[in-house]
Fold these 2 entries.
Entry 1:
Amino acid sequence: MANVEKIIIIGSGPAAWTAAIYAARANLEPLVFEGALTEENRLAGTLPLGQLALTTEVENYPGFPAGNLEAYLDDAIDKNQRTMMAPHMKEGVSGPELMELMRQQARNFGTRVITQDIVEVDVDNHPFKLSASDGKAYGSLAVIVATGARANYLGLPSEEEYKNRGVSACAVCDGALPRFRGHPVAVVGGGDSSVEEADYLSKFASTVYMIHRRDELRASKIMAQRAMDNPKIEVLWSRTLAEVLGNDADGVTGVRLASTKGEPEVQKEVTGVFLAIGHTPNTAFLAGRLQMTEKKYIKWTTPGRTVTSVEGVFAAGDVADDYYRQAVTAAGTGCMAALDAERWLAAKGFH
Ligand code: NAP
C-alpha cells in the first residue's frame, strides 16, 4: 500500500461523479474507481458509467432540455474520449452522454480515475485498505461507496439481443420513446414496481400487458387495485416470458408466453418489453463489512445523512436507495456524501 488517499470513491454513475466533483473542489483530491471493462461486467450490466449508460434519451434530468448538444459535446469532452462515444443522434442528452459529461466535469477539477473494480474493502483498520481487480491495494482515510444497483433480467438470450431496442428495465427512462407510443407493450413482474411501470406506460402505450407468473399480484392492495382500475392494463395471469420476438429492422415486435398452469403458449404483438422483477444492489464485495438491509442495500445509519455503520465510509445513490432510484436523486446523495466525508475528515483533523 504505497500512498494513503484522502478519499476514494467507488462507482461511476451520477452519485460517484457528483461526489467526485464536490470532493475535488474541496481539495480532497479524490480517486475514483470507475469499474473494469470486462465481459463479466458487460453481462451483468455493471460496466463503467452505470445504469444510465444503458439507457437512451434522458428527459428528466434537469438542465438538459431537448436541443442539439453536438457542438457542446465536441467542446466539453476530451477529444480521445469523444471519439469513442456513439454519434449524437437525437435532440437532448442521452444517458451515456450525460455520464461522459459528469465524468469530464469531475476530471476537470482534478479527479483521478482508475478503470478497475474494487473487489474488497478492509474497514477493520484505518486507513481503510481497498483491493482492486488489478491486484493492487490502496489506502484511504475516507471512502464513498456509489456502486449502484443492477436491474434484474430473466437471462433469456432474446432479452439480451433486444436490450435498448424495445427491451428495457426502466419505464420512466424509456417509456415515452416514440416506439412505444400508441402501441401495445409488456411488463414482466407482479410487484409494486411492475404496477408502477405499467401505470406509467399506460400514458403512452395502447395496451399494457402485465405478465405475471402467478394468479395473484405481489403488489400492495392499493397498487394492485390501481392496475385493476386502469382500462389499458391487462394482466396475463400465470404466464412467463419464454422469448422476446423481433427482427433487426424493427427491434421488439412481440412476446411468446409460456403458462405456469399447463395452458398452451400464446403470442402477443408488442413493441416493448419492460422487466420489473426487482433490482440487485452492487454490494457483494462489501459482504460482512457494512450493515445492509435485508435486500443487501447499504444501510444509511443516520436519517438524512449518508453515513454507514462504519465511521468514515459513506454511501450514495442506488447502492443505498431502493426507493427513488433516479439519476438526479443519486447525484443529490453523491453531493451529500462528499460533504459528509469532508466534514468528517475535518472533524477528525485529517484535512
Ligand atoms: P418485488 O416486490 O420483489 O416484486 C418482484 C416481482 O417480480 C414479483 O411479482 C415476482 O414474482 C416477480 N419476479 C421475480 N423474479 C421473477 C422471475 N425470475 N420470473 C418472473 N417473475 C419474477 O420487487 P419490486 O416490485 O421492485 O418492489 C421492490 C420494493 O419496492 C417492494 O418493497 C415494493 O413494495 C417497493 N416499491 C413500492 C412502490 C410504491 O409503493 N409505490 C413502488 C415500487 C416499489 P412473485 O410475486 O411470483 O414472487
Note: Residues 327-347 form the longest helix (21 residues).
Entry 2:
Amino acid sequence: MKNDWLWWKDGVIYQIYPRSFMDGNGDGVGDLMGIISRMDYLADLGIDAIWLSPINPSPDADFGYDVADYLGIDSKYGDLALFDQLVSAAHGRGIRIVLDLVLNHTSEEHPWFIESRSSLHNDRRGWYIWRDGRDGGKKPPNDWQSVFGGGAWEYDERTGQYYYHMFTRQQPDLNWRNPQVYAEMMNVFRYWADRGVDGFRLDVFNNYFKDAQFRDNPTKPGIRPFDRQVHRYDTNQPEMMRVVADIRSVLDEYPERYVVGETFLANTKITASYSGPGKLHAAFDFYSLIKTPWNPGRYLNAIQHQDKELPVEAWPIYVLNNHDNRRITTRIRAGEDDEKLKVSAALLLTLRGTPFLYYGEEIGMRDIHVSRSEIQDPVGKRYWPIPVGRDGCRSPMQWTDEPYSGFSTVEPWLKLHPGYPDRNVESQSKNPNSLLNFYKSLLRLRRENNALRRGIFIPLNHDPQRVLAYMRQDNDSRILIALNFARRRSKLALGGDITRYDWDVLLTNKDRSQPLFQKGWLKLEGYEACILRQK
Ligand code: GLC
C-alpha cells in the first residue's frame, strides 16, 4: 500500500443503523455493546470506517434524528464510557468512526426547546424559529410545508406564536442566525473530535438557514403540497457557504478529520457546490447511484455528470443504499437472484470515489413489508396507505438462522425479514460463491490496487442498455471493469489496443474458461461482473 493512504479517500465507509445491527443487552434494540461484539466481523469484511446513525439521547419521534442532547449517548445504546470503548475497539482494528450530527433541528424534548417555548422572553427564545401568524395570528406565517406532511409551522398556545419545523412537529428547527446557536454547534464538532471521533455525517445540513425575510415559496405542479413548491426560500440559502467553511476550519484543527454532508433537495450542481477545499470533504449526490434506474447508460451519465460538476480537487462519493430509501434489491426487483447485486457491487467498489455501504447490503438483505400496525417510521404512519415509509430497509441484521437471527434473544423492535434462515452472514460465509464473499473480494481488490482507488476513470465504448465497461488507470497499472447488466450474454465492440493487451482476470462471478476477448469483441456472461488487470 502506498504511504499517501488517506482513510476517507482510499477507504470504504460502512453505515450502521444502530437500532438494527446487533443487540448486546437483550432488549430487542441494537446497541453499542452489540456493535463492539461484531467489530471482528467488520474488520474481516474489510471496511475502513463506520458511520453510526444518531446515537445521542432521543425520544425517537424520528428514531434518533430528533436529538435531546448533542453531547450524550442514549441509554438504550450505552453511555459515554462504552462509546469510548467502541472507539478504541474500532481504532485498534484500523477502523475509523463517523458520527451522524443532526444540527438542523433538535427534539421538542431538548432542554433548549423546553426553555424556548416557555415564554416570549426566555433567553433561549431566539434559539428556534418563532414567528407571529398572518391575518392577526390566525394563519401560519407563510406557505412553507413540512417534507413529512402538513404545514411547516406549529402553533404554540402558550405564547401565541408559531415555530418552524421542516420534519415532524417534534423536530423544531434551530435558528442558525443566532450567534449563540452557531457557536454551540461548532463546539459539538470539537467535543466529539476531542473524544477521538474521526468524521461526521451532517444530516440535512443545507437546511440550516432559511430565508431571512420568510418569503413564500413559488409554486409548481406536484402531488403532495410539499412537492407543489419550488424550495427557493426554505433550503440552500447563500449563508450556507460560510457555515461549511467554518465547519471545515474547525475540523482542520485536527489531523485527518472528515465531514460529509447529506444534501437535501439538491441537484448534482448544488450538491457539488458544497464540497472541495475549504468546504465539506464530500456531499451525497443521491442522483449518482441511488436514484438511477438499472441501466448502464444512465449510470454512466450520472457518474460523468457528477465528475463534471465537482471541482477538480473534490472527491466523489458513491452509495447504493441507506436508511431512507428502499434497498437496491427492491428497487431493481432482484427477486432472490444475487447475481445482479454482484454487478452493482462491482460498480460501487470500482468507481473513482469513496464507496458507502449500508449494513446488510453485503448479504443482499431485502426490504421487509410492514402491515399498518407494524409501521414504526413517522413518515410511513403519516402517509399510510401510500407506501413511502422507511421501515422496509431498517430491519434487523441477519446474522444466523437462529431465532431472531442472532440479532437478539428477544423479539426485535422491528420485524425480521422472513427469509433470514437462508440469507444470513453465517450461511454466506461458508459459501464461496455468496454475495458476502464477492463483497469481501471486491473490498480486498480495492485495497490492493491503487489504480482502483486513485486511478483515473476512463469510460470505454458501452452498450447503453446492457454493458458498461471502463478502465481505472494509474502510473503503474491498468484495470478494466466490464459489467453486464443484462440477464443474457452480451458482447461489446472494444477495438483499439485493449483487446490486444494481455489481461489477468482478478475477479468474476461467472465461469471464465472461455476467453473474454474474441476478434475485437468483449464477451460477457449474463449478469457478469469481470475485473481484469493488464499483465
Ligand atoms: C435525514 C435523515 C432522515 C431523517 C431526516 C430528518 O434525511 O437521513 O432519516 O428523518 O433527515 O432528520
Note: Residues 62, 65, 102, 167, 203-204, 262, 323-324 surround alpha-D-glucopyranose (CB under 6 Å).
